[in-house]
Design goal:
Layout: E1 8-9, E2 17-21, H1 25-30, E3 39-43, E4 49-53, E5 57-58, H2 77-82
Parallel strand pairs: 1-5
Antiparallel strand pairs: 2-3, 3-4
Length: about 90
């Protein structure tokens, strides 16, 4: 069993997106990942993509400019459920 790595914070740039997925065979070998470790693709707005081991990073979310305001924030999954949004299983 491998030791749990220390996670390093990685900033997602404004306008960027993050996609979680399972690694390809080449990524498993190149990144020396266990088969059950997902990767995170950080897609930068200018087109660059970083692929990082999901068990080695954390994605901090900055606090809103106005702590009383929640505008612009994405609802959590349980909030989506109360909004009548359906999701597949």
């Amino acid at each position: 069993m491998r030791e749990t790595p220390v996670r390093r914070p990685v900033e997602v740039p404004a306008g960027g997106t993050v996609v979680a997925r399972m690694p390809t065979g080449a990524e498993l070998r190149n990144m020396q990942l266990d088969e059950d470790v997902p990767v995170l693709e950080i897609r930068h707005p200018e087109g660059a993509t970083e692929v990082l081991a999901g068990n080695q990073v954390e994605l901090p979310v900055p606090p809103p400019a106005d702590p009383q305001s929640t505008s612009g924030q994405v609802p959590l999954l349980h909030e989506w459920n109360t909004m009548g949004v359906k999701h597949g299983r």
